[in-house]
């Protein structure tokens, strides 16, 4: 229950700080959000062993598949993510899977030096599906 509360806090902080965005690929829907870790509540950061800082970013992702009635159900996926800053520096964003009850989501940390706009490229692989590539940008302010 405590971890579920932390997840809800993480999601609510993320939703308030930056609107959650998603991309659809047939019956798959990938939700994602990027923010600086100083926006996390201290207890949430402790729970997930995330360092709170204005120069550290957190990428959250989840992959849902629509069931027969059109409701998104979390499914496991392999996520490969790269980030590029305005100076064209490329870095990998290792994603770690978190499972809590029926929920499955992925967390990845990266460096950021606001103000900057980071460009993310994510490859989403789900068994039985072709790999899906998605690109998105996130602006970070001082």
From TrEMBL:
Source organism of this protein record: Thiobacillus sedimenti
InterPro entries associated with the record: DUF4426
DUF4426 domain: residues covered: 23-141
Keywords: Signal
Keyword Signal: yes
Name under which the protein is recorded: DUF4426 domain-containing protein
Signal peptide (from-to): 1-19
The organism's place on the tree of life at top rank: Bacteria
């Amino acid at each position: 229950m405590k971890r579920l509360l932390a997840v809800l806090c993480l999601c609510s902080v993320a939703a308030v700080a930056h609107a959650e965005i998603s991309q659809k690929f047939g019956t798959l829907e990938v939700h994602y959000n990027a923010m600086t870790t100083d926006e996390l509540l201290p207890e949430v950061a402790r729970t997930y062993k995330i360092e709170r800082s204005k120069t550290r970013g957190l990428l959250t992702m989840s992959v849902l598949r629509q069931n027969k009635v059109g409701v998104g159900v979390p499914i496991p996926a392999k996520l490969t993510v790269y980030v590029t800053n305005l100076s064209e520096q490329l870095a990998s964003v290792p994603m770690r899977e978190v499972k809590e009850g029926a929920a499955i989501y992925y967390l990845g940390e990266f460096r950021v030096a606001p103000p900057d706009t980071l460009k993310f490229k994510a490859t989403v692989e789900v068994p039985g599906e072709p790999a899906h590539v998605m690109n998105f940008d996130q602006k970070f302010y001082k």
